[in-house]
Amino acid sequence: MTAEQKALYNRVYVWEFPVRLYHWLNGITVTLLIISGFLIGNPIRLFYANEAYQQYWFGTVRFIHFVSAYIFFFNFLVRIYWGFVGNTFARWSNFIPLKKKQWREIGQVLKVDILLADPSERMSVGHNSLAGFVYFLTFLAFAFQSLTGFALYSANSTSFFPRLFTWVIPLFGGDMAVRQWHHVFMWFFIVFIIIHLYLVFYHDYIEGRGTTSSMVGGWKFEKDEDLKNSND
Amino acid sequence: MPEKMPTMREAIESKGYSRRDFLRYCSAAAAIVGLESLGIPKVVRAFETKPRPPVIWLHFQECTCCSESFIRSTHPIVADVIFDYLSLDYTETLMAPSGFQAEKSYKDTITKYAGQYILLIEGSVPAGNDGVYCMIGGRSAESILQEAAKDAAAVIAWGSCASNGCVQSAKPNPTNATPIHKLIDKPVVKVPGCPPIADVMTGVITHLLVFGSTPELDSQGRPKEFYSRRVHDTCYRRPYYDAGLFVESFDDENARKGYCLYKVGCRGPVTYNACAVTRWNGGVSYPIQSGHGCLGCSENGYWDNGPFYQHLASFPGFGVESTADTIGTTVGIGAAAGVTAHAVATNIRKRKLIQKLKSESAELKEDSNEGGNN
Ligand code: HEM
Ligand code: HEM
Ligand code: SF4
Ligand code: SF4
């Protein structure tokens, strides 16, 4: 084997601490919201033949949903803010493909991911353009779930914050429709997580530059030659 | 020129009620509109001084359940007096005159008492095909509505038909049944329900009479006095909900124990109405107390949110039995299967790429720490 065949990589600090903190808080709260939300929609049979004063498990499930919901929501706001002040990789311009180059990369990633072609060009070291765009759609789903969730919650609460969301209900025609859509969107998140986890592992495997661990330590790796070709 | 109407007190006394009856009614009315006992004199004063307003009650596409409910209000004296003191100058179901006489009485009221009469509407208006689906006295419901609403002092939409469209507007809504607030540009007080609770109906009218203004409305135009809380928040089965004790089917042990009806489709958590507080038929009971879940009859769109005996409505376009969960599970399993197939295909199709990555791996010198201490 010749020395040229060895790949030389440079460390790139892509995900700053706030992005990583956001990611894991988000991952944990969304998981809790899915589990508790699923139980709210389909309560399982537990401890029947009891009296109401002896237990409160359904109330606890709802409590977990609401606490996670608050953390989830404010964490999301922090990420929106960070999209304006964070490093290049965290900026909003990564999420909304307005440049021709981003569309070209979307095309290439689709070829690599779906047609299983080999990558012919360098891929962004931050989110690739397709991933960025999908995260953008996910952010919209986060916003939708927060609006419908707090609108439903406003019926349970007299505090001012959820009351800010009462206007959502007439848009849907009533609480029933809000609930229905809130429930449907849970499935968006379940499907997103399945595909997201897989694609993270897949890109780690075929790109070989530390995709998975990047969300833990913040580092990804870029080949010497690719670094020369990059202009962003 | 509008004629002067007698005051309510005069109207009541002319029906043979004593002052004692009158005061009894005033306390009941005060309670209904949420005044404490010190507020009773206010009601008495209002009824002694304010002229009795004329009332027009129109019927369009409806089943008359609202009228049926109305004549059964709890306090006999309230029901009685409401009918006696409110001059129901025109209502197809209850008025004495008929035919041309009735039409004349209606015309007289809207001209003589322009700007003073209260307009009560039961039923939706079919806006399709120039309104041919509902013609009264040779005129379409909509033209009658527009004429009557023009000079009304207040407009009240009785029941879910007039407020939301109700079953006549169920998909695909063949007559284009339309709720009142979409047709006129006056504020409409919505009193939804199928039917609305009698005491809520009399309560709304009493509010108008006592305060001379429409009650405070929520974001959907319903009086907050009666529609600000969900059936679920006032339901006596609520402790079972929080405890996670649910009826699984209508004939099980849990149903006999009176557990919560959430899993058999109760719409209490998404329905704003006073059922659990006021109850029905003189406070005897309400649907949940009788063992049946709430259908959400006071909510917009409840008629299309079936089946009523499952927690979520069926998913439009995917057959009656499929909920969001059936579809979600299918898509979820599909995603998991797709991902697995993809992983297998990757290892086959991308052999070369993976080989290349491996060949790029750096090799360590002999004397490194790796691989034990040889
Ligand atoms: C063990 C589980 C998870 C791992 C290992 C993981 C890993 C990662 C990695 C490596 C990235 C960066 C990918 C890239 O370079 O484009 C990322 C981004 C992202 N992940 Fe995850 N993830 C996990 C769970 C989740 C969950 C549960 C959610 C919530 C729905 C989620 C939502 C996101 C979002 C929204 C981004 C974009 C981050 C940003 O720029 O703000 N992830 N994840
Ligand atoms: C990714 C985020 C979320 C997911 C996956 C999720 C999922 C769910 C699901 C599946 C239900 C059950 C719906 C039903 O069948 O009746 C539910 C209920 C609910 N969710 Fe969420 N939710 C999320 C975020 C939120 C947020 C941010 C809030 C804001 C407070 C919220 C508040 C509620 C409320 C109030 C209910 C109704 C609970 C009740 O009436 O007992 N959710 N959620
Ligand atoms: S029976 Fe219906 S309204 Fe009553 S607590 Fe259960 S879900 Fe709520
Ligand atoms: S319990 Fe529900 S469906 Fe029944 S009358 Fe009350 S609001 Fe209507």
From TrEMBL, chain A:
Cite the entry's keywords alphabetically.
Cell membrane, Electron transport, Heme, Iron, Membrane, Metal-binding, Transmembrane, Transmembrane helix, Transport
Pfam families assigned to the protein according to its UniProt record, in alphabetical order? Ni_hydr_CYTB (PF01292)
One example GO MF annotation:
electron transfer activity
- Put simply, this protein is called Ni/Fe-hydrogenase, b-type cytochrome subunit
Instruction: State the organism named in the record.
Output: Caldithrix abyssi
Principal localisation: membrane
Under SUPFAM superfamilies, the record lists:
Transmembrane di-heme cytochromes (SSF81342)
Location within or outside the cell? Cell membrane
